Amino acid sequence: MISIKNLSDHDLEAATLHQAKSEQSATLKLLEYLSELDARELYAKRGYSSLFVYVRDVLHYSESQASERINSMRLMRKVPEVKEALADKKLNLTNAAKIASFARQEKLSVKDTARVVAECAGKSTREVESLLLAQSSAPAGAKPETLKPVSVERSRLSVDLDQEMLQHIETIKKHSANPHLTIGDILKIALKNEAHRLEKRLTVKPPARETCVKNSTVPHKANESGSGEKKESANNGDSEPALTRDVSLLNAVAKPASPSKNHSSQKDLASDLPQCEPKKHRSRYIPKALKVAVRERAHHCCEYVDPESGKRCGAVKYLQLDHITPFAKGGTHTLDNLQILCARHNQLRVPQHLRPETRH
Ligand SMILES: [Zn+2]
Question: Which alpha helices (DSSP H) does the chain contain, by range?
Fold first, then answer.
């Protein structure tokens, strides 16, 4: 085999062109496989909370590469002409991903998305950005908020400020005793005050919320599905305001040793927990102490386990409480019958016999 160093200029150029063509062809094929994998929800079955996480962690693409490939694949699925445009190099992955994001943000129809694809064909990324910006319904210059870690202890927040917020900042700076107050300082003080205010509200709570509600007659919103899958945040029968409930969950993470004022020892938490027996008038309300215990046992991450590989999802966002034996089929609000799943795995219809029996 001839070393690359020994190739003639002509052969080197031909070989490079050949490799580039092979790479583009392989990328197109990859998009087709990703589309089928997405349609089968195979990434979820394998224990990944999203296709993005799967492409990043299993296929080892960077986050931006994963995002470009997934967005391009979904655009290709929506508008089949995209495949040809990619093959003919009238569209690259970066531009296709930008069009896909734009179409999603603007809720474009298939017809309008196809029109935008045609308009963007053969254009540079800068030209595509200008074209999309000109057609955007979002306020000029508005950008999504971003939060990126810049060190172990610090992250950088990028957010647009409107005139009202700028005026508040100026007022605070003007009346502050500290002439060197930064926007970061002001944000920290504001966040601290708001967190303190919410924590104070939590201390004034009706006792009924903390106690067992055997055969409770309190009406609750109950839209749990027949399979026992539901969104804890919205449909758990707890009528606390969503924001207060979120903060209480934060408290649960921060103070795991005292999930309930009625239970002083965490050691006997499982046995002490209020267990609501199914009787004539079954309540869908799940006591807060029980919810906290389920979350703590799950270490605050998704408990879905791929039955084949044993890989646990472990997602920490969008967690929901799930009945292993569905409530509608007689499943109880007990520690053994509850688990924490991410939104993706709560939606995944897993056959009962494949449900994970052991938790890690
Ligand atoms: Zn999950």
Answer: 9-39, 42-45, 51-57, 63-78, 81-87, 93-105, 110-120, 125-135, 163-175, 183-203, 232-235, 242-254, 269-272, 288-297, 343-347
What six digits make up the tokens of 184?
A: 């970061």
Q: What is the pLDDT of residue 141?
A: 59
Model pLDDT, residue 301: 94
Q: What pLDDT is attached to residue 280?
A: 57
For the cut 90, the answer to whether the pLDDT of residue 166 exceeds it is no
Q: Ligand 1 centre and the CA of 323: distance in Å?
A: 15
Classify the C-alpha dihedral 76-79-85-90 as positive or negative. Answer: negative
- What is the arithmetic mean of pLDDT over 247-272? 39
252 Cα to the center of ligand 1, angstroms? 20
- CA of 183 from ligand 1 middle (Å) equals 37
**Amino acid at position 119, single letter:** E
Per-domain residue ranges of the chain: 10-135, 207-354
The confidence score (pLDDT) of residue 273 equals: 56
For residue 91, the tally of other CB atoms under 10 A from its CB is 25
Q: How far apart are CA 172 and CA 188, in angstroms?
A: 13
Rounded distance from Cα 57 to ligand 1 centre (Å)? 14
- Determine the distance separating the centroid of ligand 1 and the alpha carbon of 300, expressed in angstroms: 11
Strand partners, 276: 333
- How many angstroms separate the Cα of 230 from the Cα of each of 245, 331, 360? 16, 13, 23
Q: Residue 212, Cβ neighbours under 10 Å: how many?
A: 17
3-state secondary structure of 23: helix
Neighbours of 319 (CB within 10 A): 23
C-alpha 302 – ligand 1 centre gap (Å)? 5
pLDDT digits (tens, 9 = 90+) for 4-55: 999 999 999 999 999 999 999 999 999 999 999 999 999 999 999 999 999 9
72: confidence class by pLDDT, cuts 50, 70, 90: very high
Of 141, 143, 132, 144, the residue nearest 108 (C-alpha): 132
Centroid of ligand 1 to alpha carbon of 271 (angstroms): 27
Q: How far is the CA of 48 from the centre of ligand 1 (A)?
A: 6
